[in-house]
C-alpha cells in the first residue's frame, strides 16, 4: 500500500519492509531493492540461476519471475517504489504533483534484464554506504520526519541506484576500475588526485593516461563530471536547495558548485532546475 503523506495529504508510492521474507516477490507495480545483510541464498530469476551472499543486493522489476530455492541464515530488508516515483516532481510553491514520462536514467538499467542479472556487484567499501542509505529510506517511510521526507527518499534512492549501477558496469578490477569504484563510493567527500593515485599505487601521469584512454578525460575531470551528474539528478527530482545539493555532490562551497555547473552545462543550476521541470510537465 502507498504511504499517505501527512504533511501534503497525497499518496506516495513507496514501501519499506524491515524484514523481507521473499514470499511475495515480485511486488506488483513496483521496482524492488532488497538488501541482504547476512546469510546467503540461491534461486532462479527469469530462468537464470542466481546466488547471493551477504552483503548483497537483489533488484526486481514487476514483470520478473523469481523463485527462491535455498536460504541459509538470511536477513534482508526491502524498499519498493513505483516506476514513476522518481519522475514525479513536486513544486514546493504550489504543492501540486506533476507526473511526467519516465526520464531519469540513473540506476534504471539495474531492472533491465538485457543489461543486468538483477544481482549488482557490491564491494566491501560500498556496503556501509548502501546500509546507511537503506536505513534512511526505512526511517523516512516509517517516521515522515518532516515535510521534506519524500525529497530525502528520492535523494538517497538516486545515490544508491547510481552507485549500484556504476559498480556493476565496472566489474573488471583494472586500476581505472578501482579508481572509478573509489569515486562512485566517495564522491561526496573531499578527494584529491593524490588520494586516487595512492589508492591504486600509480603516479599521476600514468593514472591520467589510463583514464584518458578509457574515459576520455583525466581522473579529476571524471570526478567533476560525475559530481555534476549527481547534482543534475538532484536538481530535477528533489526540492533540495543549492547548498544541500552542493554538499551531497561533493562540492565544498555552493559558489564553486554554481560556477562549475554553469561552465560545464552552459546554464545556471537554478535555470536548469526550472527548465527540466517545465519540460517534464508538458510530456
TrEMBL record:
One Pfam family named in its UniProt record: HTH_18
Taxonomic superkingdom? Bacteria
Instruction: Give yes or no: UniProt keyword Nucleotide-binding.
Output: no
Name the InterPro entries for this protein. Answer: Homeodomain-like_sf, HTH_AraC, HTH_AraC-typ_CS
Instruction: Cite the GO molecular-function annotations of the record.
Output: DNA-binding transcription factor activity; sequence-specific DNA binding
Alphabetically list the UniProt keywords: DNA-binding, Transcription, Transcription regulation
Query: HTH araC/xylS-type domain spans which residues?
Result: 177-275
What is the designated name of this protein? Answer: Helix-turn-helix domain-containing protein
Q: Which organism is it from?
A: Cohnella terricola
Amino acid at each position: 500500500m502507498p504511504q499517505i503523506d501527512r504533511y501534503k495529504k497525497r499518496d506516495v508510492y513507496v514501501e519499506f519492509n524491515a524484514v523481507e521474507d521473499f514470499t511475495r516477490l515480485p511486488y506488483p507495480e513496483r521496482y524492488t531493492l532488497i538488501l541482504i545483510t547476512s546469510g546467503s541464498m540461491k534461486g532462479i530469476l527469469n530462468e537464470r540461476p542466481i546466488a547471493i551472499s551477504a552483503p548483497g543486493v537483489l533488484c526486481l522489476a514487476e514483470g520478473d519471475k523469481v523463485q527462491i530455492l535455498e536460504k541459509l541464515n538470511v536477513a534482508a530488508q526491502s524498499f519498493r517504489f513505483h516506476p514513476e516515483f522518481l519522475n514525479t516532481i513536486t513544486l514546493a510553491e504550489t504543492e501540486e504533483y506533476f507526473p511526467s514520462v519516465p526520464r531519469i536514467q540513473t540506476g534504471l538499467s539495474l531492472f533491465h534484464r538485457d543489461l543486468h542479472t538483477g544481482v549488482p556487484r557490491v564491494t566491501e567499501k560500498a556496503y556501509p554506504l548502501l546500509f546507511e542509505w537503506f536505513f534512511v529510506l526505512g526511517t523516512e517511510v516509517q517516521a515522515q520526519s518532516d515535510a521534506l521526507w519524500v525529497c530525502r527518499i528520492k535523494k538517497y534512492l538516486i545515490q544508491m541506484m547510481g552507485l549500484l549501477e556504476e559498480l556493476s558496469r565496472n566489474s573488471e578490477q583494472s586500476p581505472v576500475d578501482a579508481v572509478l569504484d573509489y569515486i562512485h563510493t566517495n564522491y561526496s567527500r573531499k578527494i584529491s588526485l593524490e588520494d586516487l593515485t595512492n589508492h591504486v599505487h600509480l603516479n599521476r601521469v600514468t593514472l591520467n593516461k589510463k583514464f584518458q584512454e578509457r574515459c576520455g578525460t583525466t581522473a579529476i575531470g571524471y570526478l567533476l563530471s560525475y559530481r555534476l551528474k549527481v547534482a543534475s539528478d538532484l536538481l530535477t527530482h528533489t526540492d533540495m536547495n543549492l547548498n544541500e545539493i552542493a554538499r551531497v555532490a561533493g562540492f565544498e562551497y555552493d559558489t564553486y558548485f554554481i560556477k562549475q555547473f554553469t561552465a560545464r552545462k552552459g546554464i545556471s543550476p537554478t535555470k536548469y532546475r526550472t527548465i527540466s521541470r517545465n519540460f517534464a510537465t508538458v510530456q
